[in-house]
Known about the structure:
Number of helices: 6
Shape: elongated
Strand order of the largest sheet: 2-3-1-5-4
Low-confidence stretches: 1-24
Strand content: 25-35%
Structural class: alpha+beta
Amino acid sequence: MVKILLLVALLLSSVFGAQIEEKKQGDPVIEKVKSLISGATFAKDKEYINIIFSPREDYYTPLGRVDAVKVIQTLKENGILNLFFQTPRETNISFKTEGVPLFFVKIMSDSLRNIGYYRYVTKESLYNDSKFTWTINMISEYATDPLILSQELKKSNCEIVDVIRESQTDWVYVIDMKNAKLNVPALEDSEEFRLKRSLYSYWLDVSKINKIEITSSRRNDWYPYIAYYDKSLKLLRVIKIDEKKSRITLSMRENTHYIKISDIYSLKNIKDDLVLKPTIKK
């Protein structure tokens, strides 16, 4: 009888000990919620938050971490997270990753431009032990929407791993770019491809291409600037032709993955399409 009582006591101690330890550790999903909204908002909506974030298992990734983007989506859909300010305010956004800084900044700047962010300045950039942080500053009427940014980054095979709200105007994004690529047109066949008039340089994925013949119309005053890059956006070579051209042929070397097509002087010189005829690698 004594042995049975001792066994029951040990089991109860184990159960209560586990419960106490769980309370100490906290609920990761709710902790993430609390980090994204004000204390007053959490206190006011605590019971509702417990309901909308049930079951908790839905808010974990297959790797077992809290899905910060999904948490933010639920908060927004239920009117608990407000990203708008009453008046335009100075905001700081930090992007953290492990990878090639130049490649990362290119992906981030393209993604920000695609979702409407043009007027920002680099506040700080730090690179230490393969970990890179890029911080930008801007005046805005609202904080960056993590959902829209996440959708845009997926086009470059990048994933937001975590979102940290340091204050109402200061946010940190941790981004996985191990499978990153530029979100640019990929030339994959021998079909004619046209580059429309643009204010920005033309970027292309040429990893499957051997040669490209480019034709420029008579209305263009094109002075070619061609830059070749490898898969990590390391600059391989640059071709500058200080002479108006109507036709040129580009050869892709073994490590060329991307090319940038521009004009030595101004893209305003390109009034009509540039017509590309690629040849697939054999």
